[in-house]
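Handout, section 3.2

Students often ask what a structure token actually looks like in practice. Rather than define it abstractly, here is a full record for MFS general substrate transporter. The first block is the sequence as you would receive it.
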Amino acid sequence: MSQNKHLTLEDPVEAKRIIKKIDYRLMPVLVLLYTVTFLDRVNIGNARLWNMEKDLHMHGYEYNVAVLVFYVPLILFEIPSNMILNRVVPRYYISGLAMCWGLTITFSGFSKSAGGLIAARVLIGFFEAGMLPGCLFLIGTWYRRHEMVTRVAWLFVSNDIAGIGSGLLGAGLGSLQGTGGYSGWSWIFFIEGAMTCIAAIVSFVFLPAFPEKSTFLRPAEKDWYVRRLRDDDRRGKDEKLRFLGALKAITDWKVICSGWLYLSVTVAAYAISIFQPTILSAFGWSDLKSNLLSAPVRAVSGIFSVSVGIWSDKVKKRAPFVISSFAVAVVGNLLVMLVSPVGVRYFGMYLAAIGTYNCQALVIAWGVNQVVGQTKLVFPQKDTPHYYPGLGTCIAFSASGIIAALVMYFFCAAENKKRDRGDRDHLRDLPEEEQRRLGERHPDFRYTL
């Protein structure tokens, strides 16, 4: 359009058109990538129901170890991975990671022992380490602060798509039991690994670069959009992520509090994702029924998470939504853990999933808003049918998430009041270059509450 050269930051019609253009180009690719990421992350829970432990001669806690070891490299390599992503073309790096773990998933279907499966899970964790932070990093570079929860919520709909697909695929692929001489769990890994390889090729073709280097926007659109991002209190955003900068960032109290929040929600989120079929089977349901009835839980939680994300972005508030969602998760887990009627326990699974997955997008975007995590618990078979230790841990972490949210809210509210009173105005006397490096410490910046 010829009028693009006259774009201004106050043009709502053009803003809406260009943001939609970005949404349509970026978000479908990220949703696809994170769908297969999460599908591959939790498919071990479905594979467990199709003779995996028997075929691999797994005993005691070996299954739980296979689940746990995935998270060790995942945690260790998340920050180094983002330091790499900050310096390379996103589509090369992210699609390469997806191809590597897709092939690993596929070949893990040939495992002959618990050791082979555990080794594959370590490699998958290593390759997947860059995916979630990479997706969030891209969203953070493309959207303003109060546009993020909606996009992060859409990204985490991938969890629900994967949760639904995992149950349905687990039931369908598991029924291939004996085909070609392979058990149902092998077919789950074969097919889902191949799906990831296809997603890697798609991302290589379509994933865009960072805003300043994008090619799908016209020059005038790109210039306008970059100025729009810089106008959103994003001082110093173009700086490269370096080791000392990363070390300084992770010692910031806001980052620590955000990590506490994310740890609180992630424990419960992965417990639901990986062990939901196991918990449902403890209701006395067949393996097939447990797989199938895990799907509607995730569908409902996905609808809620996007709706709450849009609402949160619209009112530009985070704390009320985070605290209330954690509370819903606590109530849901208590119902699953303490009551006897199967119908009430199943309803509790809905509440636990809704509260937990609402929080995922909210706490991530809230942490990014202020400046700019994953763990595991076990559900051994001996704790069936109520799983008091595992569900009790989920409740404890959700409760700690409420505490973390309150800490974040009150400290940030107090700092906003100081800036409103002018207590930080002395920083305006600094040279312009030093002001640019202040980031969220600049007196014009206001924390999201």
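Discussion prompt for tutorial groups: The radius of gyration is 23 Å. How would you have guessed this from the sequence alone?
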